[in-house]
Amino acid sequence: MSRSLRKKPFIDISLYNKVNKYLSNVKNSGNITTWSRRSTIYPNMVGLTINIHNGKKHIPLYITEEMIGYKLGEFVFTRKFKSHTTNKRKFKKV
């Protein structure tokens, strides 16, 4: 379900401050690290690499124009998919 149109897109204040500080700094060293997966990607984040926590470790994510309006958590998965069982393992020849 999307957010109401009368409300603005949500971004965590600490992440917003980190992005503005990074953009205003002439010497851009390192990446931005955040735990806020619920924050929306803003246009001024394009071109940045943000480390997003997936519950275990931080995953680097390069922000592109197509990602604007989506949440940060949509691009970093929290669960590891283990494949379905194959027919070879199910049925052994006797």
TrEMBL record:
Per its UniProt record, what InterPro entries does this chain match?
Ribosomal_uS19, Ribosomal_uS19_bac-type, Ribosomal_uS19_CS, Ribosomal_uS19_SF
User: One Pfam family for this entry, by name?
Assistant: Ribosomal_S19
Q: Which GO terms describe its cellular component?
A: cytoplasm; small ribosomal subunit
Print the keywords alphabetically. Answer: Ribonucleoprotein, Ribosomal protein, RNA-binding, rRNA-binding
Listed PROSITE patterns: RIBOSOMAL_S19 (PS00323)
- Record flagged with keyword RNA-binding: yes
One GO BP annotation is: ribosomal small subunit assembly
Q: Which domain of life is it from?
A: Bacteria
One annotated GO molecular function? rRNA binding
What is this protein's function? Answer: Protein S19 forms a complex with S13 that binds strongly to the 16S ribosomal RNA.
Similarity comment? Belongs to the universal ribosomal protein uS19 family.
User: HAMAP family, per this entry?
Assistant: Ribosomal_uS19
What name does UniProt use for this protein? Answer: Small ribosomal subunit protein uS19
Q: Which organism is it from?
A: endosymbiont of Rhynchophorus ferrugineus
- List the gene name: rpsS
